[in-house]
Amino acid sequence: MVNALRKYIVGFTLILIFTLLLIQVRWIIHSIRLQEKIFQKTVTLSLNQTISNLTTDKRICSVMKECIIQNTRVLEQQLTSAGVWEQIHDAIDTELATYDINLDYDLYIVKKGADSLKTREKEIKKGRYYSQCLKDIIQSSDYELVVRFPTRSGFFLEKTGLMFISSVVLIMLIILSIIYIFGLYQRELRLAENTRELINNISHEFKTPISSIALAANQIRKKRVTSEEKQQEYAGLIFKENKKLQHMVESLLHLAAIERDEFEYNKEKFDIHTVISEAISTMEVFLWEKGGEITTDFKTEPSVVFADKLHIMNSVVNIISNAIKYSEENPQIKVRTKTENDRVHIELEDKGIGIPAKYLKLIFQKYYRIPTGNIHNIKGFGIGLSYVQKVMEAHNGEVRVESEPGKGSTFILIIPVSNG
User: Fold this and answer.
1) What is residue 180's DSSP assignment?
2) Rounded-to-integer distance, Cα 89 and Cα 105, Å
3) I want to staple 241 with a disulfide (CB 3.0 to 4.6 A). Which of 50, 65, 78, 209 is the partner?
């Protein structure tokens, strides 16, 4: 019920945020369109007033009429030489300045349908242009005064620039926040699911060895052991199950350290081969139980590293433990070492079930366990690889994995060698 309510709240919140974004975008578009309409009306009023002012100047009207009648091909040159073109510009500038428009513009006089001016007419119509009929000046409606603003966007940027930029930045920040929050929510869901699975696994894994130890101890305590051989068998069972409990307790201690992100590292110089051998010896009980075998091929020279011996050994133990658990039959594990670019490579190869490619990037996440259909058929807490990755990063190293389903996996631990 709580999880369902949480999902509804998150979904409703996302809907509200997206609605706000939509309103904001529509408001920006509306604002720009409004500015365009204001600009259009302003320019139209300016041109109307310009024509009205020019109409009162009889000399300009006479010169323009005469130039148009004589030769429309060189109309602009004729008007320029007569000083009329400059007066038209000044009149338009004055009117536009009244409305605080100080933009550069191109000025044309165009005759409708004239072949000689069709090219220019097409050029004008490629952009925004504003026109006003010259009938009041030359007593002919065939000619238009046309104004085009190549830098028209500068007007809108000046009027709405700060508002537009701030709105765009705000929208982008909100979108990024939504993506981040959604990612956090998905991560929390996965973490909650993995935590529930962890608790189930802990309960299951502790129950079995504790029951075995209790049964063996009870047999010995009640003196039901009839022979020395049987006593050794029960003692061996207690030793083996106790070893498993120790291993699980260490895993839980690692879990607590991962939760606090607190690890203490006591770095020292040691032979990496010695530590690997100790790790293998630690896992011999589990290996013999499944009839497995570990072979080694140590080629690291020199083999001395400067690192935390305990954490490096635990990292190797974790990889070997996974190799044993994820082998369907007798585990066959190869441990190799080599040196590349002043870094020791510890390669642990198994012939287990392998890891599908889609899970390779997830296996180092805390609590993550590859789905197997039954959460108890392969034991584990899902913290080993996360711990290994943290240890490698603390040593300026890294952990890599190569795997193919059905053929096995190879984990590579890489740590710098000692500088002498």
Assistant:
1) H
2) 10
3) 209
Return the structure tokens found at 91. Answer: 């009149």
- What tokens were used for 18? 């997206």
DSSP 183-232: HHHHHHHHHHHHHHHHHHHHHHHHHHHHHHHHHHHHHHHTT---SHHHHH
Gap between the Cα atoms of 389 and 102, Å rounded: 64
Name the DSSP class of 395. T
Task: Output the pTM of the full model.
Answer: 0.48
Residue 414 near residue 392 (C-beta atoms within 8 A): yes
Residue owning tokens 């009205």:
52
Task: For residue 302, say if its preceding peptide bond is cis, omega within 30 degrees of 0.
Answer: yes
Distance between CA 387 and CA 366 in Å, rounded?
8
Which tokens belong to 411?
A: 């984990």
Q: Taking a C-beta distance cutoff of 8 angstroms, is the pair 113, 122 a contact?
A: no
The DSSP call for residue 349 is: E
Measured over the CA atoms of residue 376, residue 377, residue 381 and residue 386, the dihedral's sign is: negative
CB of 405 closer than 8 Å to CB of 353: yes
With both helix axes pointing from N to C terminus, report the angle between 384-394 and 309-325 in degrees, rounded to the nearest 10: 150
405 within 8 A of 356, measured Cβ to Cβ:
yes
Q: 302-312: b or e for each residue (b if 16 or more CB lie within 10 Å)? A: ebbbebbbebb
One digit per residue, pLDDT tens: the chain, 420 residues?
556 676 677 677 778 777 877 887 787 778 777 877 888 888 888 888 888 888 887 787 777 777 776 655 556 666 666 677 788 888 888 888 888 777 777 777 777 655 444 445 555 555 467 777 877 777 777 777 888 777 776 666 666 666 667 777 877 787 788 788 878 877 777 777 767 766 766 676 677 778 878 877 877 777 766 677 777 777 877 887 787 777 677 766 666 665 555 667 788 899 999 999 998 888 887 788 788 889 999 988 778 889 988 889 888 988 998 888 888 888 899 999 998 888 899 999 998 888 888 888 888 876 666 765 443 444 444 467 888 888 898 888 999 999 988 889 999 999 988 654
CA–CA separation, 128 vs 149, rounded Å?
Answer: 7
